[in-house]
Amino acid sequence: MSSTDKVIITCAVTGAIHTPSMSPYLPVTPDQIAEAAIGAAEAGAAILHLHARDPETGKPDQTPEAFEQFLPRIKQATDAVVNITTGGSPYMTVAERAEPAARFQPEIASLNMGSMNFAFFPLLAKYQDFQHDWEREHLENSRGLVFRNSFKDIEYVLETCHGNGTRFEFECYDISHLYSLAHFSDRGLVKPPFFVQSVFGILGGIGTHPEDVMHMKRTADRLFGAELRWSVLGAGKDQFRIATQALSLGGNIRVGLEDSIWIARGELASSNASQVAKARRLVEGLGLSVATPEDARKMLGLKGGDRVNF
Ligand code: KMH
Ligand code: ZN
């Protein structure tokens, strides 16, 4: 893995897993998403990983029109790197999921590296009252949910973004996904450096044990060597424990309400910025420094914030 004492903090501000009834702080409207993203950038996030939602119901909305409501505002207010999801929600088709990244040609788009069960129904034990009808179904239906990312789907996203200069956050939820990324590298369809986002703790993916983190790192190091730019995200309560382990191993980290609505045990995060500020304290406490957006652009070989289409 390339070694530097600069750590990229990514903030994923809203996502498509949590629902409005779980936290009053989950950004839902374009104004809330823009404010959350700008606050996260001011707190030290170099990269903003973005999803959109329906402002009335909070349901994930992957139409370009939904993203158009906040992308220009974020670009005007910050220099942070904008990363548009192509994961959208696991309930959507890959064609729907790829549309916003194809249209707005961001510096980074996420790219999910394998098909898997993607389950959040155990949250039903914790939440009984919902503000919107879709929320209960969203959780319940995840018992049968397969997040489809076949080789054909991955090729589709690559082809759709081909020629736009968009690079990728390769989301790897298991060891096999690293091998799929190596396959695309062997075919010359993806180019180094490889920004690998290792995801721990999704039911259907790898767990959150320190040995899981080590195994992911060792395998990624072996497959990608000096071309690896390794980042981690821990889902839910394990977010900061996994971030701390990865920091001590030379990794980059992702936080944000997409992945965890908590700031401490039993305490909701009142903003994305509060999680970024905590991440910053961890980084600096270990004698490392927080990468600026310009640092992140150099580390990941990005095209520049002036070459996007929004
Ligand atoms: N919430 C992450 C575990 C994407 O946007 O492409 C999954 C994710 C997928 O971030
Ligand atoms: Zn996402």
Overview of this protein structure:
With 310 residues, the chain is of the alpha/beta class. The protein has a single domain (6-307), classed as TIM Barrel, CATH 3.20.20. It has helices spanning 30-43, 64-68, 71-77, 94-104, 133-140, 151-161, 175-186, 210-224, 239-248, 272-285, 293-300; strands at 6-7, 9-12, 47-50, 81-84, 108-112, 116-117, 146-147, 167-172, 194-200, 228-234, 252-255, 262-264, 267-268, 289-290. The strands form four sheets. The chain has an eight-stranded parallel beta barrel with strand order 2-3-4-5-8-9-10-11, surrounded by seven helices. Strands 1-14 form a two-stranded parallel sheet. The protein has a two-stranded antiparallel sheet with strand order 6-7. Helix 1 packs parallel to helix 3 (71-77). The chain is globular. The chain starts with 5 loop residues before the first strand and ends in a 10-residue tail after the last helix. The model has no long low-confidence stretch (mean pLDDT 97). The structure holds (5S)-5-amino-3-OXO-hexanoic acid and zinc ion (ZN).
